[in-house]
Amino acid sequence: MFEIMMGAAAPAAGAVQPYVDNTMLLLVSAMVVMFMAAGFCCLEGGLVRQKNVAAICLKNISLFSLACIAYYLVGYRLMYDGVDGGFIGTLGVWSPGPMDEANGDMAASADWIFQTVFVATAASVVSGTLAERIKLWPFLFFVLILTAIIYPITGAWKWGEGWLAVRGFQDFAGSTLVHSVGGWSALTGAIILGPRLGKYLDDGRVRPFPGSNLPFATLGVFILWLGWFGFNGGSQLAAGTISDANAVARIFANTNIAACAGVLTAMAISQLHYGKVDLTLALNGAIGGLVSITAEPLAPALWQSMIVGGVGGVLVVYAVPLLDRLKIDDVVGAIPAHLVCGIWGTLVVAWTGMSAETGFFTLLGSQLLGVVSIGAFVIASTLGVWFAIDRTVGLRVSAEDEQTGLDQTELGIEAYPDFLARG
What we know:
By secondary structure, the protein is mainly alpha-helical. It has a single domain (2-411), classed as Ammonium transporter fold (Orthogonal Bundle). The protein has 16 helices and no strands. It has helices at residues 2-7, 16-47, 53-80, 108-129, 136-158, 163-166, 175-193, 214-233, 242-274, 279-294, 302-325, 334-347, 349-352, 360-392, 399-404, 406-411. The model is unreliable at 1-8 (pLDDT under 50).
């Protein structure tokens, strides 16, 4: 991809309209995916306690800004330039040239900005899991390493035409390459960082910490849901033919119905198990359904997409108490929604995406290879980074600061100054 981008000529006269259509698809999709940053901010701000809302808002806007710059300076070329069936691209700053040379059938900068807004999504998964007890600057240092190096390397293996692409691994829009990478990073961070004070009691009970604003969190999920149409639909990368336009429309339909199924199954399972419907599980059921369909949103029939998303909603409900039994504190439920459902969505491609050329078991083997290899690499690399940060500058705020709240101790302000509830 990168070699074409750097040297291709302008499109021929007959290809002007497809060029414009493809470019506009990526630009509009990039804007919609960027708005997912607002969705993560609302979701996380609504699910943390009042004393930490301003801090999580700052983390969201700063991680997005840092991720975009890191990806520009290092990550993009590392992911796409000269991978050629291997493991890694080239170090260097990306540049489209003085006149933004064409990337074959679209503007080079359209492709770049579309890929760039993806990278912050993986980092947003981490911020929600580790909220309320991680220091700001050490967290941002981790985001720098994740978005400049770790995410681009794993992306190169598939989207950069690296070794996993050669072996038939399929991940249309990033169930593994984006969401599981973020999920594995969040999991290793939660293990190193430890749970919030008072979350797990000595008698084995789990102390609930209600979020500050559930309507705010619900709005965040609706924004993320909207953003997913750009996330999955834009990954078609073309809209200049009838076939491409039909594909984008089909992706939209499959994406939407998977999310709907995720909500309803999460509601049903929580009613059966807890005797009442849990709003937060329903919200994460929507995200779980969306993550599940992301690896292959084009090939399935609508009924298949409904099953894929519905299973995602079920997995979310069962994974949340499992993490609590393991005393892994995930503030917003990001690990079940992004990691567990990312794995499920990637593996189920063996059913929804198989063809006459690629049978079920052959494709399942490729999918397993991708899940295991990317998981192993991200676990090893992120554990090393988290451990190094913890042993040098430290990851966790002091117990006193955690009790007071990060809004006051790190920012000196309060998100809700008129009615802040302590504790």
